[in-house]
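Translate sequence into structure tokens.
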Amino acid sequence: MFLVLDTNEYLFALGSRRAPSSVELLEKIAANPERFEIRICRSILNEIRENSIPQRFRELWNFLNLLGITLDEDWDVPFEIVAKYEALGLKQGDAFVAGYTEYVGAQCLITENRKDFLAHPGWFPFKVLNAETFLKQFI
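Result follows.
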């Protein structure tokens, strides 16, 4: 299954306020690379870096390298896709994450963002789930 994880999943898995479901999510992805493929873009990586200590960011970098995940550049995402989500009312950063998820063809966006993503699953051509729900449905 092809996934995009929102910034908050990485921060809740590696940050000082760890959420058990986010920790388990990364563990399950790492244990099943043949089953789960993740993509990450520069803006998500930068946001993680800005909101984590260097040691935690290094853990994430090692996780990404272990799985052979390459970084996608933000400029590859067509403006029109992002604008579509801004027109629906998403903030620019959230609209970009939605546009990126659609652009790379991910089947699911995993996020804890209830207000902008989880409350509007019909807006997206991909599933939108939080870590706990994803684990229950797919693990």
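Note: The chain has a mean pLDDT of 94.
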